[in-house]
């Protein structure tokens, strides 16, 4: 599995999609730029969870519960509507 990181302009990505898709399928990452600025990334599906987890490190408390967060969000939404 390759860990390559490629950079492509939006035009290059459009014109050579198959090439960049193959990089992602091999475990790499493609950074897409437009006018010299990064506008997006294409990463392998199996890397999405670790990427999101890494980006949330330090934000979520260790005892965070998705079900509890959902209940709190719904409670706040519907109780404030009264």
Characterize the structure shown.
The chain has a 3-stranded mixed β-sheet with strand order 1-2-3. The protein has helices at residues 10-15, 17-25, 45-56, 66-79; strands spanning 5-9, 29-34, 37-42. It is 50% helix and 21% strand. The model has no long low-confidence stretch (mean pLDDT 82). It has a single domain, classed as YefM-like fold (3-Layer(aba) Sandwich). With 82 residues, it is α+β, with helices and mostly antiparallel strands.
Summarize the structure.
With 82 residues, this protein is α+β, with helices and mostly antiparallel strands. It is built from four helices and three strands.
Q: What class would the helix/strand composition place it in?
A: alpha+beta
Strand content: 15-25%
Using the 3D structure, state the CATH architecture.
3-Layer(aba) Sandwich
Distance between the termini: 55 Å
Biggest β-sheet: strands ordered side by side in the sheet: 1-2-3
How many β-strand runs? 3
Mean pLDDT, to the nearest integer, reads 82
Topology (SSEs and partners):
Elements: E1 5-9, H1 10-15, H2 17-25, E2 29-34, E3 37-42, H3 45-56, H4 66-79
Parallel strand pairs: 1-2
Antiparallel strand pairs: 2-3
Which key terms come to mind for this protein?
alpha+beta, 3 strands, 50% helix, YefM-like fold, 82 residues, single chain
């Amino acid at each position: 599995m390759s860990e390559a990181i490629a950079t492509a302009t939006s035009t290059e990505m459009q014109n050579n999609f198959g090439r960049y898709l193959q990089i992602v399928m091999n475990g790499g990452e493609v950074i897409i730029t437009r006018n010299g600025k990064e506008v997006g990334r294409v990463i392998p599906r199996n890397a999405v969870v670790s990427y999101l987890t890494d980006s949330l490190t330090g934000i979520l408390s260790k005892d965070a519960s998705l079900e509890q967060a959902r209940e709190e969000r719904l409670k706040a939404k519907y109780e404030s509507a009264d």
